[in-house]
Amino acid sequence: MEFEEKTVKSERIFDGVLLHLVREEVLLPNGKTSVREMIRHPGAVAMIPFTSDGKMVMVRQFRKPLDRTVVEIPAGKLETSDKEPLVAAIRELEEETDYRAEQWSELAVFYPTPAYLDERITIYLAEGLTKIENSLPMDEDEFIEVLELTYDEAKALQESGEICDSKTIYAMLYWEMRLLRERIEG
């Protein structure tokens, strides 16, 4: 069965600083038409940074859509000047945490909510962290507390709901699998 929908008409409803809302009329595989409303996003990066003593670096910040403070892995949107996502990841880690990583590995690319949002997040593993001075300045509208958490501390924050976003929950699952693999191998 063919699943592809063909765009018949596209209309920009809203152009914001970060997000763009689009309404499209689509032709369905059965020949009928339907309407799709979508948010266009430039994409983002996130990183799972580990300190030399095995702690994960996370950030605490207020998220207006939730109207509360949450704990997340460091992340940021792609800028038009970013040639590749890794450039943005390196910048965001330094801006948000004052850390620089020696080793970077791409772990995954995922779409958090593909039903209505085209945001693509590339997640990296960042290791060999070094605390730096004179790091890149944080965005003027960001207020962040940097945390270095053990697995048990992070798990407690997840269970309390303070860690609640998909990219950080993915990072927690990655960490669990890493710990499990170390136990099995070691």
TrEMBL record:
<dbReference type="GO" id="GO:0005829">
    <property type="term" value="C:cytosol"/>
</dbReference>
<feature type="domain" description="Nudix hydrolase">
    <location>
        <begin position="39"/>
        <end position="171"/>
    </location>
</feature>
<dbReference type="GO" id="GO:0019693">
    <property type="term" value="P:ribose phosphate metabolic process"/>
</dbReference>
<keyword id="KW-0378">Hydrolase</keyword>
<dbReference type="InterPro" id="IPR000086">
    <property type="entry name" value="NUDIX_hydrolase_dom"/>
</dbReference>
<dbReference type="Pfam" id="PF00293">
    <property type="entry name" value="NUDIX"/>
</dbReference>
<dbReference type="InterPro" id="IPR015797">
    <property type="entry name" value="NUDIX_hydrolase-like_dom_sf"/>
</dbReference>
<protein>
    <submittedName>
        <fullName>ADP-ribose pyrophosphatase</fullName>
    </submittedName>
</protein>
<dbReference type="GO" id="GO:0016787">
    <property type="term" value="F:hydrolase activity"/>
</dbReference>
<dbReference type="GO" id="GO:0006753">
    <property type="term" value="P:nucleoside phosphate metabolic process"/>
</dbReference>
